Amino acid sequence: MEKKQEVLLEVSNLRTYFPVKTNKLRKKTVLKAVDDITLTVFKGETLGIVGESGSGKSTLGRTILRLVEPTEGEIVFEGQHIENLKLRELQVIRNQMQVIFQDPFGSLNPRMRIEEIIEEPIKMHTRLSKIERKNRIKELIEKVGLSEEALKKFPHEFSGGQRQRIGIARALAINPKFIIADEPVSALDVSIQSQVLNLMMDLQDEFHLTYLFISHDLSVIKHISDRVAVMYLGRIVEIGTKESLYKNPLHPYTKALLSSIPVVDFENKREEIMISGELPSPVDPPVGCAFHTRCPFAMDICRLKRPQLKDKNEDQQVACFLYEEEQTIEREPNHLVEI
Amino acid sequence: MKQLGKEKLLEVKDLKVYFEIGHDKIAKAVDGVSFSINKGETVALVGESGSGKSVTSLSIMRLIPTPPGKIVGGSIELDGQDLLSYTEKNMRKVRGEDIGMIFQEPMTSLDPVFKIENQLIESIIYHQRISKKEAKQRALELLQLVGIANPEKVLHEYPHQLSGGMRQRVMIAIAMSNNPKLLIADEPTTALDVTVQAQILKLMLKMKDSFNSSILLITHDMGVVAETADRVLVMYGGQIVEEAQVKELFLNPKHPYTAALLRTIPSLEQNTRRLPSIPGNVPPAHKFPKGCRFADRCEFAMDICRESAPALGRISDGHQVRCHLPFMKGGQEIGEETRSITGSV
């Protein structure tokens, strides 16, 4: 596949902090949900964001849409800065970006008929007449593989997979360019999951959509993405093309993630990198590299300094001291002993 | 301890659990399920939501809410004892003592207003009739056993103070507290992150070996099945449609549903752009078709499939399938067939 290099979205040094009250001393601290993230999304591609719960992947998606306000940093969509736009100006931009949520039960208003649910964004963002809207709704519901009768029904009359199709129809209603899909298939059975993934890929081809696809499921991410970013405690620890990242994962966390997926593999037992423990609390993340508490290769420097995301090869960037230039480590010779 | 005895621990025969859902509609959630679990064995029960796998496990523990649900037929024997004839009082001894349980959602299955200590000790005292002090000692040992680093501290914490993985470890400690013969785990890792999932699965298998018990693992994740189970039961529409040793099932699936299920898993190796999918949805349990319940979604469906419901038939030792196809003249190899379809996409 040819590389599509036209930039659609650029995020630089984005931070989203939430104030939290810690119980003990009533001291106020911040939870760094998104902590200095820089990334680019190209037109027509699918960028997968993968991470465990608490890694900040959903907050990242919401911040880009400004459903959550960024604390610091820039969000540039099609050349326009949107991090400081007023609500009214933001509305104009938002008809280019839509979102699909995980929970097909919670994200559809139970008291609205399907046609009203899909009509809402059209009313909000376009000036189509009533008849035009009706036609558009019909066209959309067929595009996502449901029949016209569905329009008169309420959400509870549908299964999870069908509801997710309705959510997709709503997201597509105003011809957006960019869709953020936040765990869109996680609540579905496997056989239904693949239907929805196939649908999303077909629609991408047909409408030239760009996806930011957020998921905890590495197999799903691999299937749908062109490039993948791995998040850990609010930061990107590795980003690269799908092929390179899955074939040759660099960051110890990426390696551990890939090796902990249960797979069907009766002949050659693959190398297993078990990591102990769980994600530390994002309110009180470890100093230095956030992963050092669970990393089997942690060195002294990892406990002191925070690694930056750097180019490792043409296709991959990684934030890990294992891959830093030798000179950096030479400057601190003590740390060589640890390796 | 790898050698599996042929001694049967649990035997379920022709189990039928129906739910009344109003207007004389009856949902046949479990409709004639028979299987057994040997001592020391891990058996996986797989299926999509609505296939009846959870109702099967709840029936074994006699936890079906009645009404609307009712066990209308069949038998469940644990170590030769007929559980369906037990009174509620006797059943309470069985739960937690002979059968340990782990559920999907560790947050809702622990009581939020009691400390871990109380919840762990409660079950130990109830079943073992030992002093509070001894029970506390036992609780500490158990927490250590399930890999909790600072058991003293955790004993005095409430469920909300623990992470998802920690809570599931506590649940396993409670489930194992009375050396159960059978551990029923209903989607035990579905709510957990992958890195934690791997730890919890390892822990479950370790506990099974050290306590010499058997596991009935209910899951929808074929990857988890491949890594943990000895034998697999595939459920669809309230029935078992295929049963085989784990390797046999993955390498030589006979039921089109099993084969399709295996194909729909997005794998890390395959590079096809389109995922094979199964069209349609699981039929609702009150409106099963007359013939095979999978016929409407099956790519190999024939006339006979819509006319007569297939029975479980034997393929080889321990491998059974509920499908007409393998028993037709010149029956084709579904596994082979489907694999070549995948390759050509």
UniProtKB/TrEMBL annotation, chain A:
Domain ABC transporter: 9-258
Keyword Nucleotide-binding: yes
Positions of transmembrane segments: none
InterPro entries linked: AAA+_ATPase, ABC_transp_ATP-bind, ABC_transporter-like_ATP-bd, ABC_transporter-like_CS, Oligopep_ABC_C, P-loop_NTPase
PROSITE patterns: ABC_TRANSPORTER_1, ABC_TRANSPORTER_2
UniProt KW keywords: ATP-binding, Nucleotide-binding, Transport
A GO BP annotation: peptide transport
Domain of life of the native organism: Bacteria
UniProt cross-references to Pfam families, sorted A to Z: ABC_tran, oligo_HPY
Family note: Belongs to the ABC transporter superfamily.
Protein name: Peptide/nickel transport system ATP-binding protein/oligopeptide transport system ATP-binding protein
Record organism: Oceanobacillus polygoni
UniProtKB/TrEMBL annotation, chain B:
Gene3D superfamilies linked to this entry: P-loop containing nucleotide triphosphate hydrolases
Matches recorded under CDD domains: ABC_NikE_OppD_transporters
PROSITE patterns, sorted: ABC_TRANSPORTER_1 (PS00211), ABC_TRANSPORTER_2 (PS50893)
Domain ABC transporter: 10-262
Primary location: membrane
Record keyword Cell membrane present: yes
GO molecular function: ATP binding; ATP hydrolysis activity
Keyword RNA-binding: no
Protein topology in the membrane: Peripheral membrane protein
One GO cellular component term: plasma membrane
TM helices/strands, residue ranges: none
Key words, A-Z: ATP-binding, Cell membrane, Membrane, Nucleotide-binding, Transport
Pfam entry (one): ABC_tran
Record-stated family: Belongs to the ABC transporter superfamily.
Name of the protein described by the UniProt record: Peptide/nickel transport system ATP-binding protein
Species the sequence originates in: Oceanobacillus polygoni
Lineage: Bacteria, Bacillati, Bacillota, Bacilli, Bacillales
